[in-house]
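Weekly modeling sync, notes
Attendees: AB, CL, MP (scribe)

Item 1: holo prediction request
CL wants a bound-state model with pyridoxal-5'-phosphate before deciding which constructs to order. AB pointed out that an apo prediction alone won't tell us much about the pocket. Agreed to run with the ligand included and paste results into these notes for async review.

Input as submitted:
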Amino acid sequence: MIKFLDLGKINNRFRAEIDQRIQKILDNGWYLQGEENETFNRNFANFCGTKYCVGVANGLDALNLIIKGYGFGPGDEIIVPANTYIASILAISENGCTPVLIEPDINTYNINPKLIEEKITSRTKAIMVVHLYGQAVKMQEIWEIAKKYNLKIIEDSAQAHGAYYKGKRVGNLGDASGFSFYPGKNLGCMGDGGAVTTNDEILYEKIKAIANYGSDRKYHHIYKGVNSRLDEIQAAILDIKLKYLDLDNKRRQQIAKYYRDNIKNEKIILPQTYNEDSHVWHIFAVRTNNRDDFQNYLEKHNIQTNIHYPTPPHQQGAYKEWSHLSYPISEIIHKTIISIPISPVLTDEEVRNITEVINAY
Ligand SMILES: *Cc1c(COP(=O)(O)O)cnc(C)c1O
């Protein structure tokens, strides 16, 4: 069986280094907000090209904390793609803000910038872009709209660690960015983890405090904060894996290129990219009209697949108030999309095998 994602195999490549770093943490007896966080925050900010990074408990919290840090709340509207993982939207509603959903571009699956301006009102505060499946959003038009209407740009970079747009990394394409280090992400830890990157010193200081009980120094609470910290063990693991992230992403790009050059089946629509550097292929999602049949066929040939995602946020029970709304492009994508294996530990032979099986479908 070719697994959809072999996390054990991915992480075992770093076993010796991880063992050594955890021994050090055991020796030091210091588990939160210590050296490992300091090192990782500095290295991840450097990697993204930003001045600041703060490790937090998970990706949802990262987005949540950015919105809290800006002080957005009830009555404020935030623009967000209709075609995303629900976390992007949950972060907005959790703060009492109103998510304003925008349809994607069918070629990139990312937010369609042409549809943003008509949704801007006097209450709009920010545009949240999501670099879905690992592909950086084409930011130029977003930058222009944000400037024209004085809006903040929040990036949801949970799927695109390391991707570039116009020479800058994801995480450095807006005012603040939320990352997830959930185990399956391109940079994943061994539990939950997340981070905020930004160049805004005031926002950075505020988020750092809010994430630690609203405290800027011990027992001194200036905000009604939360507890959202990255622990030292996860920070250490991430710091090790960060060194290999560009190499891992290159391997993903190589596999994606092989699939795109060699999968030839008119029943299968392949993903597109506008620039090779812009896509780090967190997910290789194809589309087909008979998805269930295709998924069963691959399963029978020992190839595991996954669906990202089967139901769009506006049709989820959590957002019953939107059930009358229709976002036809998002709906079509959710009905036809299916993800085939892509990961840095997939072998050439497995990639060839997957391609042959798909071509024979
Ligand atoms: C994974 C993910 C998140 C949430 O990350 P967690 O660490 O699981 O909280 C947010 N947005 C997108 C697009 C994601 O893929």
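Recorded for review: The radius of gyration is 20 Å.
Action items: CL to compare against the apo run; MP to circulate these notes.
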